[in-house]
Design a protein that fits this description.
Elements lengths: L8 H27 E5 L14 E5 H7 L6 E6 L2 E12 L4 E5 L2 E4 L2 E2 L19 E2 L4 E5 L17 E2 L5 E8 L8
Antiparallel strand pairs: 1-2, 2-11, 3-4, 3-11, 4-9, 5-6, 5-8, 6-7, 9-10
């Protein structure tokens, strides 16, 4: 290829390095924009699943290909401050009816039975229930139901699928809790 045309070995070596670095940068940009992204947990809204300071790897491609599923933990920008990512659990999909009765969430008239939060909900939010999750959106809650700003509040609301940065694939920090959350 170009090696045969360039006689100077230093120039040839420099070109090889430039091509290798260029390919590495291209791979990084493609990976960052289409495959994976990193996110940090701030606050206690996802305890006991995720803790303040946890670093997560988000799977962007899987989210785009497979779409949302119940119990996915996803990251999305907060509507009022897009520089801040929220990390929450999907509990209802587009078309699902969500209700909050006496501190218990119901999805399609079935009580939400999850292992993520056992406390009775006292933080009700300002959304009006029952509600139907709009087309192209998901309803999300933090696992720490009484310490989370989530879809119960109108400034978060149902999250448009296009706003989701990715699905949590793995916790990478701290190393003592490395793995799927």
């Amino acid at each position: 290829m170009f090696k045969d045309r360039i006689a100077n070995p230093y120039v040839r070596s420099l070109l090889e390095w430039l091509i290798a670095v260029g390919l590495a940068i291209l791979f990084f940009l493609i990976s960052r924009n289409f495959l994976f992204r990193m996110a940090h947990v701030t606050g206690s809204s996802m305890e006991p699943t995720l803790y303040h300071g946890d670093m997560l790897m988000l799977n962007r491609l899987g989210w785009l290909v497979n779409g949302p599923r119940i119990n996915d933990v996803v990251a999305f920008p907060f509507r009022l401050d897009p520089s801040e990512n929220f990390i929450k659990r999907v509990i209802a999909l587009a078309g699902d009816k969500v209700d909050l009765i006496d501190g218990v969430f119901f999805v399609n008239d079935v009580p939400l039975d999850d292992d993520f939060s056992e406390a009775k909900i006292v933080l009700l939010g300002d959304e009006i229930f029952p509600l139907v999750v709009p087309e192209g959106a998901v309803f999300v809650l933090g696992d720490n139901r009484n310490g989370s700003k989530d879809s119960r509040f109108t400034d978060v609301g149902s999250v448009p699928i296009g706003d989701v940065v990715g699905r949590v694939a793995v916790r990478v920090w701290p190393l003592s809790r490395l793995g799927r959350p």
